[in-house]
Amino acid sequence: MTIDLKPEHLHGAAFRLLTAVVAVTFIFSATVTSFAYSNGIKTVTVTDGLRTRSVSTKLDDPEQIVKAAGFALSANDELSTKAFSPESGGIITINRAKTVRVIDNNKIVYCIGYNTLGNTLRDRGFGTSENIDSDIPLEENVFDGMQVVINRAFPVKVVADGEETTLYTMGSTVSDLLDEAGVEVGDEDDVNRTLTSDVSDEATITVDRVEYIERTAKEEIPFETQTETSADIFEGEKEVVTAGVKGEKELVYKDKFVNGELESSELVSETTVKEPVKEVVKIGAKKRPALIIFKNGVEPISDLDVPSYVKLDSNGVPKNYVDYLEGAATAYTNDPQTSTGRKPQQGIVAVDPKEIPYGSELYIVSKDGQYVYGYAIAGDTGGFIYSTNNIADLYMDTYDMCCEWGRRDIAIYVISYGNGK
């Protein structure tokens, strides 16, 4: 006999009987569950990729629970127990170890990975997505035998404005790195690398701040000195005829400063503001006479009168003369006629006309101060010029005077040079 247990067919005692059975079943189930918990039995779900198994167990150790669920573990496999507790069970996830071949800057390294490539590289110390570049997306899961080529960021130093900044890059241009460091490059600044060049290894980029400043300076222009020989001035003396005046010029320089320090200067322009004035100096050619002290009462030997325009100083020598000569002199007498036709007399002297032209006015004294021959005219010559080194031969009235004179040194003051006649 078949009993129809559909609700609409249950009435009276039958419905009450079914209700009692369901209630008893629920109570039994709750009692069994409560009994299981009270006896340390819990349900654990083990996940291995796409495979999942649940076990009821008193075991607390995750590895023993996984083995009880029928899963075998390799040496490098890992268990994730974030959702598991020994008291209440939960979920244990098996992370199977994968061998990954990493080519790191041409160096081959084998490592163990579990989930994504990015996490594997990070956990194994290769770096994060911020400082490594991979030929395989970092989001992909690793698998046994995976081979990946990575480029790691390298440090680049940027030195500018007295500061040093270290950046990490996997390859950038110099310009991009300077932008990243916040360094602006002016038109005049010097960078040790071309801005458009690539930086592919460790390097130091140096920016030198360059500034050009123009400055104006004034500089003296020295004057030239022109010298002229003057017979009116004694040797060793000079006379400034026109005083020299320094000129002035304006110079414009372009100074180059590198990082605030002066490195070089370039002359841009030069302008003469004031021309210098040449100095004219007369240099004495007049021989300085010897200091002669005459013996008291010495009278001139010459019979010629001293012209009024010849002024003698207190020592008895001319104040004004054009030349001064020194040399030895002898005396002669009884010459019937001079070579110029002049009458022989005391005051007419014989000379070498090549040195002292005929007609020259002279004033002659002995250097020892014993004699003053006096005013004389160069009007004669003789054979002495061929055989002696005399400068003159003085005419005397008597032979005794000649003998007394002998040969002695004289000083000749040339009042004027004659015309040779």
Mean pLDDT: 86
Please describe the biggest sheet, giving its number of strands, its sense, and whether it closes into a barrel: 6 strands, mixed, barrel
- Structural class, from secondary structure content? mainly beta
> How large is the count of helical segments?
6
Q: What is the number of beta strands?
A: 27
Poorly predicted regions are: 1-37
Compute the CA-based radius of gyration.
66 Å
- Beta-strand portion reads 35-45%
* Morphology: rod-shaped
Question: Could you estimate the helical fraction of the residues in percent?
Answer: 10-25%
Strand order of the largest sheet: 22-26-23-25-24-27
Report on the structure:
The chain has 421 residues and is mainly β. Helix content is 14%, strand content 42%. The chain contains six helices and 27 strands. The protein has helices spanning 13-38, 62-68, 117-123, 174-181, 384-387, 399-405; strands spanning 42-48, 51-57, 78-80, 84-85, 89-95, 98-104, 107-113, 132-134, 146-152, 154-160, 163-169, 172-173, 190-191, 198-199, 203-208, 210-221, 225-234, 238-242, 247-258, 261-274, 279-286, 323-332, 348-350, 361-366, 372-380, 392-395, 408-416. A six-stranded mixed barrel has the order 22-26-23-25-24-27. Strands 1, 2, 3, 4 and 5 form a five-stranded mixed β-sheet that branches. A hairpin with a 2-residue loop joins strand 19 (247-258) and strand 20. The longest helix has 26 residues, at 13-38. The radius of gyration is 66 Å and the shape is rod-shaped. The model is unreliable at 1-37 (pLDDT under 50).
Describe the secondary-structure layout.
Layout: H1 13-38, E1 42-48, E2 51-57, H2 62-68, E3 78-80, E4 84-85, E5 89-95, E6 98-104, E7 107-113, H3 117-123, E8 132-134, E9 146-152, E10 154-160, E11 163-169, E12 172-173, H4 174-181, E13 190-191, E14 198-199, E15 203-208, E16 210-221, E17 225-234, E18 238-242, E19 247-258, E20 261-274, E21 279-286, E22 323-332, E23 348-350, E24 361-366, E25 372-380, H5 384-387, E26 392-395, H6 399-405, E27 408-416
Parallel strand pairs: 1-5, 6-9, 10-15, 17-21, 22-26, 23-25
Antiparallel strand pairs: 1-2, 3-5, 4-5, 6-7, 8-9, 10-11, 12-14, 13-15, 16-19, 18-21, 19-20, 22-27, 23-26, 24-25, 24-27
